[in-house]
Amino acid sequence: MADIAAPSATIISGDRRTGLHKLMQRKSTIAFLMALPLILLITILVAYPAGYAVYLATLNKSMTKFVGLGNFDFLFKRATFWDIVFQSCLFAITAVIFKAIIGFVVAHFVHNIPTKGQRKWRGMLLVPWVIPPAMSTLAWLWLFDPSYSAFNWILVHLGMAGIPWTGEANWARFSVILVNIWAGAPFFMIMYLAALKSVPEQLYEAASIDGATWWQRIWYVTLPMMRNIIAITALFSMIVTFANFDIVRVLTSGGPLTSTQLFATWAFKVGIESGDIPLGATVSLFMVPILAVAATFILRDISKRGSEV
User: Fold this and answer.
1) How confident is the model over 185-213, as pLDDT tens digits?
2) For residue 6, with 0-12 CB atoms within 10 Å meaning exposed, 13-18 middle and 19 or more buried, which class applies?
3) Helix 115-125, helix 169-197: angle, nearest 10
4) Can you tell me the distance from the alpha carbon of 259 to that of 253, in angstroms, rounded to the nearest whole number?
5) What is the dihedral of CA 133, 190, 233, 262, to 10 degrees?
């Protein structure tokens, strides 16, 4: 019996080693193991802080008592909160639309430049996106300065009145949106430029033979071939723009009054400057459902188009 049991145990052990060897040879297993460090990093740096923010949002100001949804109920009753919602949506949607349009136009401009000159133009046009936002926004702050504004100096010499760039609510909103567009449009440009290079030239040639105009080639060839990249880039930019902090903080600090406050800046003001960390965490959590809805519609549209191909 002992002689029979020993070979069977050896066979089972060999089968296990063979199964493990086959498992390690699968591409999905290798991909998972290679992505495991990133998964752990995301869990530590994203999942844990998000869970802790949810926990903080259920506490009172002194963080000694559980209040459930009390902080959310308090925010819903404040008119300032709904102003922040409006301003955040206005800021993000307007900035992303203009970044997408400008990036698309500039990408076509660079794409039509001879290959030797493209590297120089790409490098120069990426500078606004590469510079740290706080540093570049500080330069814009000097350009908008009420006493020494370079823009107002030009306007005065043209016989026009100076503009209170950061001193009046509507102009302040325009200013922060302008700076965000300036800083973010190069990202759209480089993404769209990569997508343009992947469009087969044969499609343009076929469209030209069929008598398509320049605009028709853009509408019926370029946009359909780039629509997934356009959607993903817009989604990524929407997330980053909604969570923008440094541009508004440096340029206007949310003023005048609260006319340029966004979710991120108001959460900082309420949670850090005013000392109400649970309420600040509650404010920051409101970005999640808004972005989740936007991501759901965009990704569903991408998935639908992918299944049609």
Assistant:
1) 999 999 999 899 888 888 888 888 888 88
2) exposed
3) 150
4) 10
5) 20
